[in-house]
Design a protein that fits this description.
173 residues; alpha+beta
Length: 173
């Protein structure tokens, strides 16, 4: 079953770019950004390193790559668009060119913060590339439903009521 699912659903959905794009174009309304922001997410090995990185990035947001490359592995960072609730609590103010407070992980004492480059306070459509993971998932579900429907038509389920009644009778005693 796993191999057939891989062939008929999972790999087909992941590799058929033309069909994925077609599916996306026909269902664009499903793929929307909520409140979101372009951010630089920074993780550091400890709070002091994070605070120093935050200070440096607040002075020059373009310095984050160099900061990461020269940190000896103590700082990891990446940039991209993220839903606001993943960056800050929903009620937090949305401002361009600001940094969130440093949050310390109690388990390992690592620390994180986000630098907000640009905010998008209103919903907006996701591009195909931004929505691709969701599109693949939705398209896989569609392929699976179609495949199961075809199997049901090809191999209809027939219940032998006499045998079913005997089984029920046996289970009740």
């Amino acid at each position: 079953l796993f191999e057939v699912m891989e062939r008929k659903v999972w790999s087909k959905a992941a590799s058929d770019t033309a069909e994925l794009r077609n599916y996306y174009n026909n269902h664009k309304a499903r793929y929307q950004w909520g409140k979101s922001a372009d951010v630089i997410m920074v993780s550091a090995s400890d709070s002091l390193t994070a605070l120093n990185a935050r200070k440096t990035i607040l002075q020059n947001s373009d310095s984050w790559r160099q900061l990461m490359e020269t940190s000896g592995g103590r700082i990891m960072a990446d940039s991209g668009r993220m839903e606001w609730k993943l960056v800050q609590p929903e009620n937090a103010p949305m401002k361009n060119n600001m940094a969130t407070t440093v949050t310390v992980n109690r388990e390992d004492q690592s620390a994180t913060f986000a630098y907000i480059l640009k905010t998008y306070p209103k919903p907006s459509p996701k591009s195909f590339n931004d929505a691709r993971v969701q599109v693949v998932n939705d398209y896989q579900q569609l392929l699976e439903e179609k495949w199961i429907d075809a199997l049901r038509k090809q191999y209809p389920v027939v219940v032998n009521n006499t045998t079913f009644a005997q089984v029920l009778n046996t289970l009740q005693h």
